[in-house]
Amino acid sequence: MKKKIFGLIFIVLVLVFIYAPILILAFYSFTNASQIGAFQTFSLKNYVTLFNTEELREMIIGTVLLALGASFLATLIGSLGAIGSFYSSKRVNAFFNTLNEIPVINADVVSGFSACILLVVVLGIGKETFIPLVIGETILCAPFVYLSVMPKLKQMDPSLYEAALDLGATPAVALWKIIVPQVASGIVSGFMMAITLCLDDYFIATYTKPATFDTISTYVVNATKGSHTEIKTALWALSTLIFLLVLGAVLIMNLKSVRDEESKR
Amino acid sequence: MKFSRKALGIPYAIFLVLFVAAPLLVLIYFAFTNSNGEFTVSNLLGFFTDPNTLGTLCYSFAIAFVTTVVCLLLAYPTAYFLATSGLSNKGAMIMIFIMPMWINFSLRITALKEILSIIEGNLAFYPFLNSVIGMVYDFLPFMILPIYNTVSKLDPSLTEAARDLGATEWNAFLKVTLPLSIPGIVSGVSMVFLPSMTNYVVLDMLYNSTYIMGSLIGSYFSAYNWHGGSMIALILLGIICLFTLATDDLTEEENAGRGGALL
Protein backbone atom coordinates (compact mmCIF):
# COMPACT_ATOMS: atom_id res chain seq x y z
CA MET A 1 0.00 0.00 0.00
CA LYS A 2 2.82 2.37 0.95
CA LYS A 3 4.51 1.48 -2.31
CA LYS A 4 1.36 2.30 -4.25
CA ILE A 5 0.98 5.74 -2.71
CA PHE A 6 4.66 6.51 -3.26
CA GLY A 7 4.33 5.39 -6.88
CA LEU A 8 1.28 7.55 -7.42
CA ILE A 9 2.96 10.64 -5.97
CA PHE A 10 6.06 10.02 -8.09
CA ILE A 11 4.05 9.67 -11.29
CA VAL A 12 2.04 12.80 -10.56
CA LEU A 13 5.24 14.80 -9.92
CA VAL A 14 6.76 13.67 -13.21
CA LEU A 15 3.54 14.60 -15.00
CA VAL A 16 3.62 18.05 -13.38
CA PHE A 17 7.21 18.49 -14.57
CA ILE A 18 6.25 17.48 -18.11
CA TYR A 19 3.01 19.40 -18.44
CA ALA A 20 3.22 22.43 -16.13
CA PRO A 21 5.19 24.58 -18.61
CA ILE A 22 2.92 23.69 -21.54
CA LEU A 23 -0.28 24.27 -19.57
CA ILE A 24 0.86 27.52 -17.96
CA LEU A 25 1.86 28.80 -21.38
CA ALA A 26 -1.52 27.71 -22.75
CA PHE A 27 -3.27 29.67 -19.99
CA TYR A 28 -1.29 32.83 -20.71
CA SER A 29 -1.81 32.48 -24.45
CA PHE A 30 -5.45 33.47 -23.85
CA THR A 31 -4.52 36.71 -22.09
CA ASN A 32 -2.96 39.97 -23.21
CA ALA A 33 0.03 39.44 -20.91
CA SER A 34 3.41 40.08 -22.50
CA GLN A 35 5.15 37.74 -20.10
CA ILE A 36 4.24 34.93 -17.73
CA GLY A 37 3.02 36.15 -14.36
CA ALA A 38 1.82 39.50 -15.64
CA PHE A 39 -1.80 38.41 -15.92
CA GLN A 40 -4.09 41.16 -17.04
CA THR A 41 -7.23 40.17 -18.87
CA PHE A 42 -8.67 37.58 -21.21
CA SER A 43 -7.80 38.21 -24.83
CA LEU A 44 -7.58 36.35 -28.12
CA LYS A 45 -5.09 38.77 -29.61
CA ASN A 46 -2.33 36.14 -29.75
CA TYR A 47 -4.51 33.92 -31.91
CA VAL A 48 -5.47 36.85 -34.13
CA THR A 49 -1.79 37.73 -34.59
CA LEU A 50 -0.91 34.12 -35.30
CA PHE A 51 -3.39 33.87 -38.16
CA ASN A 52 -3.02 37.40 -39.51
CA THR A 53 0.74 37.75 -39.61
CA GLU A 54 1.91 36.79 -43.08
CA GLU A 55 5.36 35.72 -41.85
CA LEU A 56 3.91 33.30 -39.30
CA ARG A 57 1.36 31.89 -41.71
CA GLU A 58 3.97 31.27 -44.39
CA MET A 59 6.28 29.62 -41.88
CA ILE A 60 3.58 27.22 -40.67
CA ILE A 61 2.36 26.32 -44.16
CA GLY A 62 5.94 25.92 -45.38
CA THR A 63 6.79 23.56 -42.53
CA VAL A 64 3.73 21.41 -43.17
CA LEU A 65 4.33 21.26 -46.93
CA LEU A 66 7.99 20.39 -46.41
CA ALA A 67 7.09 17.65 -43.92
CA LEU A 68 4.45 16.19 -46.27
CA GLY A 69 6.73 16.31 -49.31
CA ALA A 70 9.83 14.87 -47.67
CA SER A 71 7.78 12.20 -45.86
CA PHE A 72 6.07 11.18 -49.08
CA LEU A 73 9.43 10.84 -50.81
CA ALA A 74 10.92 9.00 -47.84
CA THR A 75 7.95 6.64 -47.63
CA LEU A 76 8.09 5.87 -51.34
CA ILE A 77 11.78 5.01 -51.60
CA GLY A 78 12.00 3.60 -48.07
CA SER A 79 9.13 1.13 -48.58
CA LEU A 80 10.32 0.08 -52.03
CA GLY A 81 13.83 -0.23 -50.61
CA ALA A 82 12.59 -2.50 -47.83
CA ILE A 83 10.72 -4.75 -50.30
CA GLY A 84 13.70 -4.89 -52.65
CA SER A 85 16.13 -5.56 -49.82
CA PHE A 86 13.90 -8.26 -48.31
CA TYR A 87 13.86 -10.28 -51.54
CA SER A 88 17.57 -9.80 -52.25
CA SER A 89 20.45 -12.05 -51.28
CA LYS A 90 21.76 -12.00 -47.73
CA ARG A 91 24.74 -9.86 -48.70
CA VAL A 92 22.65 -7.20 -50.41
CA ASN A 93 20.27 -7.26 -47.48
CA ALA A 94 23.17 -6.67 -45.07
CA PHE A 95 24.37 -3.80 -47.27
CA PHE A 96 20.95 -2.13 -47.01
CA ASN A 97 20.66 -2.72 -43.29
CA THR A 98 24.10 -1.30 -42.54
CA LEU A 99 23.76 1.88 -44.58
CA ASN A 100 20.20 2.32 -43.33
CA GLU A 101 21.43 2.23 -39.74
CA ILE A 102 23.83 5.16 -40.18
CA PRO A 103 21.32 8.05 -40.15
CA VAL A 104 19.40 6.32 -37.35
CA ILE A 105 22.29 6.31 -34.89
CA ASN A 106 24.03 9.40 -36.21
CA ALA A 107 23.59 12.74 -34.45
CA ASP A 108 21.37 15.15 -36.39
CA VAL A 109 24.09 17.78 -36.23
CA VAL A 110 26.51 15.46 -38.03
CA SER A 111 23.91 14.33 -40.60
CA GLY A 112 22.92 17.91 -41.35
CA PHE A 113 26.48 19.19 -41.53
CA SER A 114 27.73 16.38 -43.78
CA ALA A 115 24.69 16.68 -46.08
CA CYS A 116 25.37 20.41 -46.35
CA ILE A 117 29.04 19.85 -47.19
CA LEU A 118 28.30 17.29 -49.89
CA LEU A 119 25.33 19.00 -51.53
CA VAL A 120 26.13 22.65 -51.09
CA VAL A 121 29.91 22.89 -50.82
CA VAL A 122 31.06 20.03 -53.04
CA LEU A 123 28.24 19.67 -55.57
CA GLY A 124 27.39 23.35 -55.51
CA ILE A 125 23.59 22.95 -55.37
CA GLY A 126 22.18 26.24 -54.17
CA LYS A 127 20.28 26.16 -50.87
CA GLU A 128 17.61 28.43 -52.39
CA THR A 129 16.58 25.58 -54.74
CA PHE A 130 15.20 23.71 -51.67
CA ILE A 131 16.87 20.56 -53.05
CA PRO A 132 19.40 20.21 -50.18
CA LEU A 133 16.62 20.75 -47.64
CA VAL A 134 14.28 18.14 -49.13
CA ILE A 135 17.10 15.61 -49.59
CA GLY A 136 18.32 16.30 -46.05
CA GLU A 137 14.89 15.68 -44.52
CA THR A 138 14.47 12.56 -46.64
CA ILE A 139 17.82 11.23 -45.33
CA LEU A 140 16.47 11.75 -41.83
CA CYS A 141 13.11 10.00 -42.41
CA ALA A 142 13.58 7.23 -44.99
CA PRO A 143 15.54 4.87 -42.69
CA PHE A 144 12.68 4.87 -40.19
CA VAL A 145 10.20 3.98 -42.94
CA TYR A 146 12.50 1.13 -43.97
CA LEU A 147 12.67 -0.06 -40.36
CA SER A 148 8.91 -0.02 -39.92
CA VAL A 149 8.15 -1.86 -43.18
CA MET A 150 10.81 -4.57 -42.74
CA PRO A 151 9.20 -6.42 -39.79
CA LYS A 152 5.86 -6.58 -41.67
CA LEU A 153 7.60 -8.27 -44.60
CA LYS A 154 9.14 -10.79 -42.24
CA GLN A 155 5.75 -11.61 -40.70
CA MET A 156 4.14 -12.11 -44.10
CA ASP A 157 3.20 -15.58 -45.32
CA PRO A 158 5.35 -16.10 -48.47
CA SER A 159 3.04 -18.73 -49.92
CA LEU A 160 0.33 -16.15 -50.67
CA TYR A 161 2.55 -14.47 -53.25
CA GLU A 162 3.44 -17.85 -54.78
CA ALA A 163 -0.24 -18.76 -54.90
CA ALA A 164 -1.06 -15.54 -56.75
CA LEU A 165 1.64 -16.30 -59.32
CA ASP A 166 0.35 -19.86 -59.72
CA LEU A 167 -3.13 -18.51 -60.30
CA GLY A 168 -1.83 -16.45 -63.19
CA ALA A 169 -1.05 -13.04 -61.73
CA THR A 170 2.00 -11.26 -63.13
CA PRO A 171 4.69 -10.47 -60.51
CA ALA A 172 3.82 -6.78 -60.66
CA VAL A 173 0.13 -7.43 -60.01
CA ALA A 174 0.93 -9.93 -57.26
CA LEU A 175 3.20 -7.38 -55.61
CA TRP A 176 0.55 -4.67 -55.73
CA LYS A 177 -2.38 -6.89 -54.69
CA ILE A 178 -0.72 -9.26 -52.25
CA ILE A 179 2.44 -7.79 -50.75
CA VAL A 180 1.55 -4.10 -50.52
CA PRO A 181 -1.74 -4.64 -48.62
CA GLN A 182 0.03 -6.88 -46.13
CA VAL A 183 2.73 -4.35 -45.33
CA ALA A 184 0.38 -1.35 -45.55
CA SER A 185 0.27 -0.86 -41.78
CA GLY A 186 4.08 -0.62 -41.73
CA ILE A 187 4.05 1.88 -44.56
CA VAL A 188 1.44 4.03 -42.79
CA SER A 189 3.27 4.03 -39.47
CA GLY A 190 6.52 4.75 -41.28
CA PHE A 191 4.88 7.73 -42.95
CA MET A 192 3.53 9.03 -39.63
CA MET A 193 6.95 8.66 -38.08
CA ALA A 194 8.52 10.52 -41.00
CA ILE A 195 6.06 13.39 -40.54
CA THR A 196 6.83 13.62 -36.80
CA LEU A 197 10.58 13.58 -37.36
CA CYS A 198 10.35 16.22 -40.07
CA LEU A 199 8.15 18.54 -38.04
CA ASP A 200 10.48 18.28 -35.07
CA ASP A 201 13.74 18.59 -36.97
CA TYR A 202 15.95 21.58 -36.32
CA PHE A 203 19.50 20.66 -37.26
CA ILE A 204 19.06 19.34 -40.80
CA ALA A 205 16.90 22.35 -41.60
CA THR A 206 19.37 24.93 -40.25
CA TYR A 207 22.25 23.48 -42.23
CA THR A 208 20.43 23.04 -45.53
CA LYS A 209 17.54 25.51 -45.70
CA PRO A 210 17.43 28.65 -47.87
CA ALA A 211 18.15 31.80 -45.86
CA THR A 212 14.69 33.20 -46.48
CA PHE A 213 12.76 30.08 -45.49
CA ASP A 214 11.98 29.01 -41.93
CA THR A 215 10.47 25.90 -40.43
CA ILE A 216 8.59 26.10 -37.14
CA SER A 217 11.69 24.92 -35.26
CA THR A 218 14.18 27.34 -36.79
CA TYR A 219 11.69 30.19 -36.57
CA VAL A 220 10.87 29.61 -32.90
CA VAL A 221 14.55 29.27 -31.97
CA ASN A 222 15.28 32.67 -33.49
CA ALA A 223 12.13 34.25 -32.10
CA THR A 224 12.85 33.24 -28.49
CA LYS A 225 16.21 34.99 -28.72
CA GLY A 226 14.68 38.13 -30.16
CA SER A 227 12.79 40.76 -28.22
CA HIS A 228 9.76 40.99 -30.51
CA THR A 229 7.09 40.46 -27.87
CA GLU A 230 4.10 40.32 -30.17
CA ILE A 231 5.57 37.44 -32.18
CA LYS A 232 6.78 35.71 -29.03
CA THR A 233 3.35 35.62 -27.43
CA ALA A 234 1.75 34.60 -30.75
CA LEU A 235 3.99 31.53 -30.59
CA TRP A 236 2.38 30.66 -27.23
CA ALA A 237 -0.86 30.42 -29.19
CA LEU A 238 0.81 28.17 -31.76
CA SER A 239 2.15 25.96 -28.97
CA THR A 240 -1.33 25.69 -27.45
CA LEU A 241 -2.93 24.83 -30.80
CA ILE A 242 -0.36 22.11 -31.51
CA PHE A 243 -0.86 20.74 -27.99
CA LEU A 244 -4.63 20.57 -28.52
CA LEU A 245 -4.16 18.98 -31.95
CA VAL A 246 -1.86 16.27 -30.54
CA LEU A 247 -4.18 15.73 -27.57
CA GLY A 248 -7.12 15.29 -29.95
CA ALA A 249 -5.19 12.83 -32.11
CA VAL A 250 -4.12 10.79 -29.07
CA LEU A 251 -7.70 10.71 -27.74
CA ILE A 252 -9.06 9.55 -31.10
CA MET A 253 -6.38 6.87 -31.37
CA ASN A 254 -7.19 5.66 -27.86
CA LEU A 255 -10.93 5.58 -28.43
CA LYS A 256 -10.36 3.68 -31.64
CA SER A 257 -8.16 1.07 -29.98
CA VAL A 258 -10.70 0.66 -27.18
CA ARG A 259 -13.47 0.18 -29.75
CA ASP A 260 -11.34 -2.27 -31.74
CA GLU A 261 -10.81 -4.32 -28.63
CA GLU A 262 -14.50 -4.31 -27.80
CA SER A 263 -15.44 -5.46 -31.29
CA LYS A 264 -12.96 -8.31 -31.00
CA ARG A 265 -14.71 -9.69 -27.95
CA MET B 1 13.06 -6.02 -68.91
CA LYS B 2 11.53 -8.66 -66.73
CA PHE B 3 9.94 -7.38 -63.55
CA SER B 4 11.88 -8.32 -60.45
CA ARG B 5 11.11 -7.59 -56.83
CA LYS B 6 14.79 -7.04 -56.15
CA ALA B 7 14.86 -4.16 -58.60
CA LEU B 8 12.49 -2.19 -56.38
CA GLY B 9 15.34 -1.60 -53.97
CA ILE B 10 17.59 0.04 -56.54
CA PRO B 11 16.40 3.65 -56.01
CA TYR B 12 16.89 3.34 -52.28
CA ALA B 13 20.30 1.72 -52.74
CA ILE B 14 21.40 4.62 -54.92
CA PHE B 15 19.94 7.07 -52.42
CA LEU B 16 21.80 5.45 -49.52
CA VAL B 17 25.12 5.44 -51.37
CA LEU B 18 24.77 9.01 -52.63
CA PHE B 19 23.34 10.71 -49.58
CA VAL B 20 24.36 8.57 -46.63
CA ALA B 21 27.70 6.99 -47.51
CA ALA B 22 29.09 9.75 -49.74
CA PRO B 23 28.61 12.59 -47.20
CA LEU B 24 30.64 10.61 -44.67
CA LEU B 25 33.47 10.11 -47.16
CA VAL B 26 33.39 13.81 -47.99
CA LEU B 27 33.48 14.52 -44.27
CA ILE B 28 36.64 12.44 -43.87
CA TYR B 29 38.22 14.16 -46.87
CA PHE B 30 37.44 17.63 -45.54
CA ALA B 31 38.60 16.77 -42.04
CA PHE B 32 42.08 15.88 -43.27
CA THR B 33 42.60 18.68 -45.78
CA ASN B 34 43.06 22.44 -45.50
CA SER B 35 41.41 25.14 -47.59
CA ASN B 36 43.97 24.62 -50.38
CA GLY B 37 42.99 20.97 -50.66
CA GLU B 38 46.30 19.75 -49.23
CA PHE B 39 46.48 16.82 -46.83
CA THR B 40 46.92 17.90 -43.23
CA VAL B 41 46.46 16.55 -39.74
CA SER B 42 46.44 20.01 -38.20
CA ASN B 43 42.65 19.90 -37.73
CA LEU B 44 43.02 16.73 -35.70
CA LEU B 45 46.02 17.95 -33.73
CA GLY B 46 44.34 21.31 -33.28
CA PHE B 47 41.41 19.64 -31.57
CA PHE B 48 43.49 17.65 -29.15
CA THR B 49 45.91 20.45 -28.26
CA ASP B 50 43.44 23.28 -27.84
CA PRO B 51 42.33 23.47 -24.19
CA ASN B 52 39.05 25.10 -25.27
CA THR B 53 37.91 22.24 -27.49
CA LEU B 54 39.10 19.62 -25.01
CA GLY B 55 37.24 21.48 -22.28
CA THR B 56 34.11 21.44 -24.43
CA LEU B 57 34.49 17.71 -24.94
CA CYS B 58 34.73 17.09 -21.18
CA TYR B 59 31.90 19.52 -20.47
CA SER B 60 29.59 17.80 -22.94
CA PHE B 61 30.45 14.41 -21.46
CA ALA B 62 29.57 15.79 -18.02
CA ILE B 63 26.27 17.26 -19.23
CA ALA B 64 25.36 14.08 -21.09
CA PHE B 65 26.24 11.92 -18.08
CA VAL B 66 24.26 13.95 -15.55
CA THR B 67 21.30 14.28 -17.95
CA THR B 68 21.25 10.53 -18.51
CA VAL B 69 21.42 9.76 -14.79
CA VAL B 70 18.65 12.24 -13.94
CA CYS B 71 16.47 10.91 -16.78
CA LEU B 72 17.03 7.37 -15.56
CA LEU B 73 16.18 8.27 -11.95
CA LEU B 74 12.95 9.91 -13.09
CA ALA B 75 12.03 7.47 -15.84
CA TYR B 76 12.69 4.11 -14.17
CA PRO B 77 10.31 4.56 -11.21
CA THR B 78 7.70 6.13 -13.50
CA ALA B 79 7.87 3.27 -15.98
CA TYR B 80 8.05 0.68 -13.21
CA PHE B 81 5.06 1.97 -11.26
CA LEU B 82 3.05 2.36 -14.46
CA ALA B 83 3.89 -1.13 -15.70
CA THR B 84 3.25 -2.87 -12.38
CA SER B 85 0.15 -0.88 -11.40
CA GLY B 86 -3.20 -2.57 -11.70
CA LEU B 87 -4.53 0.11 -14.05
CA SER B 88 -6.84 -1.27 -16.70
CA ASN B 89 -5.88 1.20 -19.41
CA LYS B 90 -2.10 1.35 -19.23
CA GLY B 91 -1.85 2.08 -22.95
CA ALA B 92 -3.62 5.40 -22.41
CA MET B 93 -1.45 6.22 -19.40
CA ILE B 94 1.80 5.68 -21.27
CA MET B 95 0.43 7.82 -24.10
CA ILE B 96 0.17 10.73 -21.67
CA PHE B 97 3.86 10.41 -20.88
CA ILE B 98 5.09 10.17 -24.43
CA MET B 99 2.68 12.70 -25.93
CA PRO B 100 5.21 15.55 -25.61
CA MET B 101 7.30 13.78 -28.28
CA TRP B 102 4.74 14.93 -30.84
CA ILE B 103 4.80 18.57 -29.79
CA ASN B 104 7.53 20.55 -31.50
CA PHE B 105 10.55 20.63 -29.17
CA SER B 106 11.21 24.31 -29.79
CA LEU B 107 7.77 25.24 -28.52
CA ARG B 108 8.16 23.02 -25.45
CA ILE B 109 11.55 24.54 -24.65
CA THR B 110 10.04 28.01 -25.06
CA ALA B 111 7.47 27.08 -22.44
CA LEU B 112 10.18 25.74 -20.13
CA LYS B 113 12.26 28.87 -20.61
CA GLU B 114 9.38 31.14 -19.62
CA ILE B 115 8.79 29.17 -16.43
CA LEU B 116 12.47 28.92 -15.49
CA SER B 117 12.95 32.64 -16.10
CA ILE B 118 10.22 33.40 -13.57
CA ILE B 119 11.82 31.10 -11.00
CA GLU B 120 15.49 31.89 -11.53
CA GLY B 121 15.66 35.26 -13.21
CA ASN B 122 18.61 35.23 -15.57
CA LEU B 123 19.11 31.68 -16.84
CA ALA B 124 22.77 32.30 -17.76
CA PHE B 125 23.69 32.33 -14.06
CA TYR B 126 23.34 28.55 -13.77
CA PRO B 127 24.34 27.21 -17.19
CA PHE B 128 25.05 23.65 -16.07
CA LEU B 129 21.85 23.29 -14.05
CA ASN B 130 19.70 24.78 -16.78
CA SER B 131 21.36 22.68 -19.48
CA VAL B 132 20.51 19.55 -17.54
CA ILE B 133 16.93 20.69 -16.85
CA GLY B 134 16.42 21.54 -20.52
CA MET B 135 17.87 18.28 -21.77
CA VAL B 136 15.91 16.20 -19.26
CA TYR B 137 12.74 18.02 -20.21
CA ASP B 138 13.38 17.34 -23.87
CA PHE B 139 14.50 13.71 -23.67
CA LEU B 140 12.59 12.21 -20.71
CA PRO B 141 9.90 10.51 -22.84
CA PHE B 142 12.62 8.73 -24.82
CA MET B 143 13.83 7.14 -21.60
CA ILE B 144 10.39 6.28 -20.18
CA LEU B 145 9.08 4.43 -23.24
CA PRO B 146 11.76 1.72 -23.75
CA ILE B 147 11.95 1.00 -20.01
CA TYR B 148 8.16 0.75 -19.81
CA ASN B 149 8.11 -1.61 -22.81
CA THR B 150 10.67 -3.91 -21.20
CA VAL B 151 9.25 -3.89 -17.67
CA SER B 152 5.66 -4.43 -18.80
CA LYS B 153 6.69 -7.56 -20.72
CA LEU B 154 8.35 -9.15 -17.66
CA ASP B 155 6.65 -12.25 -16.34
CA PRO B 156 5.22 -11.33 -12.90
CA SER B 157 5.56 -14.95 -11.75
CA LEU B 158 9.35 -14.51 -11.62
CA THR B 159 9.07 -11.91 -8.86
CA GLU B 160 6.41 -13.99 -7.13
CA ALA B 161 8.74 -16.99 -7.20
CA ALA B 162 11.54 -14.93 -5.67
CA ARG B 163 9.14 -13.76 -2.93
CA ASP B 164 7.95 -17.32 -2.27
CA LEU B 165 11.55 -18.41 -1.93
CA GLY B 166 12.02 -15.89 0.83
CA ALA B 167 13.39 -12.77 -0.85
CA THR B 168 12.20 -9.47 0.56
CA GLU B 169 10.27 -7.24 -1.82
CA TRP B 170 13.31 -4.98 -2.24
CA ASN B 171 15.67 -7.91 -2.84
CA ALA B 172 13.31 -9.46 -5.36
CA PHE B 173 13.27 -6.17 -7.24
CA LEU B 174 17.05 -5.80 -7.07
CA LYS B 175 17.88 -9.36 -8.09
CA VAL B 176 15.07 -10.16 -10.53
CA THR B 177 13.26 -7.16 -11.98
CA LEU B 178 16.18 -4.76 -12.30
CA PRO B 179 18.59 -7.11 -14.13
CA LEU B 180 15.80 -8.16 -16.49
CA SER B 181 15.01 -4.56 -17.37
CA ILE B 182 18.58 -3.77 -18.46
CA PRO B 183 17.79 -3.98 -22.23
CA GLY B 184 15.19 -1.24 -21.81
CA ILE B 185 17.55 0.86 -19.70
CA VAL B 186 20.35 0.52 -22.25
CA SER B 187 18.19 1.53 -25.19
CA GLY B 188 16.85 4.46 -23.18
CA VAL B 189 20.38 5.51 -22.25
CA SER B 190 21.52 5.40 -25.86
CA MET B 191 18.56 7.54 -26.88
CA VAL B 192 19.38 10.18 -24.27
CA PHE B 193 23.17 10.20 -23.89
CA LEU B 194 24.21 10.93 -27.48
CA PRO B 195 21.61 13.64 -28.20
CA SER B 196 22.52 15.42 -24.97
CA MET B 197 26.12 15.68 -26.18
CA THR B 198 25.12 17.19 -29.49
CA ASN B 199 21.74 18.87 -29.23
CA TYR B 200 23.06 22.35 -28.58
CA VAL B 201 19.94 24.16 -29.69
CA VAL B 202 18.24 23.42 -26.36
CA LEU B 203 20.97 25.36 -24.54
CA ASP B 204 21.05 28.00 -27.22
CA MET B 205 17.36 28.67 -26.62
CA LEU B 206 17.60 28.65 -22.85
CA TYR B 207 20.48 31.07 -22.34
CA ASN B 208 21.83 32.10 -25.75
CA SER B 209 25.16 30.35 -25.52
CA THR B 210 26.34 26.80 -25.55
CA TYR B 211 29.47 24.85 -24.73
CA ILE B 212 28.84 21.32 -25.94
CA MET B 213 30.29 19.34 -28.85
CA GLY B 214 27.41 20.05 -31.22
CA SER B 215 27.85 23.80 -30.82
CA LEU B 216 31.42 23.59 -32.12
CA ILE B 217 30.05 22.34 -35.43
CA GLY B 218 27.53 25.17 -35.36
CA SER B 219 30.21 27.81 -34.87
CA TYR B 220 32.45 26.40 -37.61
CA PHE B 221 29.39 26.33 -39.85
CA SER B 222 28.63 29.99 -39.22
CA ALA B 223 32.28 30.81 -39.97
CA TYR B 224 32.19 28.79 -43.25
CA ASN B 225 35.10 26.72 -41.93
CA TRP B 226 34.16 23.38 -43.48
CA HIS B 227 37.46 21.72 -42.61
CA GLY B 228 37.40 22.41 -38.87
CA GLY B 229 33.69 21.56 -38.70
CA SER B 230 34.26 18.26 -40.51
CA MET B 231 36.91 17.26 -37.99
CA ILE B 232 34.52 17.90 -35.07
CA ALA B 233 31.77 15.99 -36.89
CA LEU B 234 34.18 13.12 -37.49
CA ILE B 235 35.22 13.00 -33.83
CA LEU B 236 31.55 12.99 -32.81
CA LEU B 237 30.90 10.22 -35.30
CA GLY B 238 33.73 8.22 -33.70
CA ILE B 239 32.21 8.68 -30.24
CA ILE B 240 28.78 7.65 -31.59
CA CYS B 241 30.25 4.51 -33.19
CA LEU B 242 32.07 3.49 -30.02
CA PHE B 243 28.97 4.09 -27.95
CA THR B 244 26.76 2.12 -30.34
CA LEU B 245 29.16 -0.82 -30.45
CA ALA B 246 29.29 -0.85 -26.67
CA THR B 247 25.52 -0.81 -26.22
CA ASP B 248 24.56 -2.99 -29.19
CA ASP B 249 25.18 -6.31 -27.44
CA LEU B 250 23.08 -5.25 -24.49
CA THR B 251 19.87 -4.38 -26.33
CA GLU B 252 17.46 -6.89 -27.74
CA GLU B 253 15.33 -4.53 -29.73
CA GLU B 254 17.39 -3.55 -32.70
CA ASN B 255 14.82 -1.16 -34.07
CA ALA B 256 14.48 0.86 -30.91
CA GLY B 257 15.97 3.95 -32.50
CA ARG B 258 14.93 7.42 -31.59
CA GLY B 259 11.97 7.35 -33.95
CA GLY B 260 11.37 3.64 -33.52
CA ALA B 261 9.99 4.62 -30.16
CA LEU B 262 7.55 7.10 -31.56
CA LEU B 263 4.90 4.79 -32.88
What proportion of the residues of chain B form beta strands (DSSP E)?
A: under 5%
Overall pLDDT score of chain B:
84
- Summed up, the domain count of chain B is 1
Discrete helix count of chain B: 12
Tell me which oligomeric state these chains represent.
heterodimer
Number of helices of chain A: 11
Report the C-alpha radius of gyration of chain B, rounded. 22 Å
Order of helices and strands of chain B: HHHHHHHHHHHH
Tell me the CATH superfamily of the domain at 54-155 and 185-232 in chain A: MetI-like
Structural class of chain B: mainly alpha
Rg of chain A over CA atoms, rounded to whole Å, is 23 Å
Question: How does the helix and strand content of chain A classify structurally?
Answer: mainly alpha
Features:
heterodimer, A: 265 residues, mainly alpha, MetI-like fold, 82% helix, B: 263 residues, 73% helix, disordered C terminus
Structure description:
The complex is a heterodimer of chains A (265) and B (263). Chain A has 265 residues and is an all-alpha fold. Chain A has helices spanning 2-29, 45-52, 54-86, 90-105, 108-122, 131-155, 158-166, 171-200, 203-208, 216-225, 229-264. The radius of gyration of chain A is 23 Å and the shape is globular. The model of chain A has no long low-confidence stretch (mean pLDDT 88). Chain B is globular, with a radius of gyration of 22 Å. Chain B is built from 12 helices and no strands. In chain B, α1 (10-31) crosses α12 (226-248). Mean pLDDT of chain B is 84; it is low at 252-263. Chain B has one domain: MetI-like fold (Orthogonal Bundle). Classes of the chains: A mainly alpha (265), B mainly alpha (263). Chains A and B meet through α1, α3, α4, α5 and α6 of A and α1, α3, α4, α5 and α6 of B.
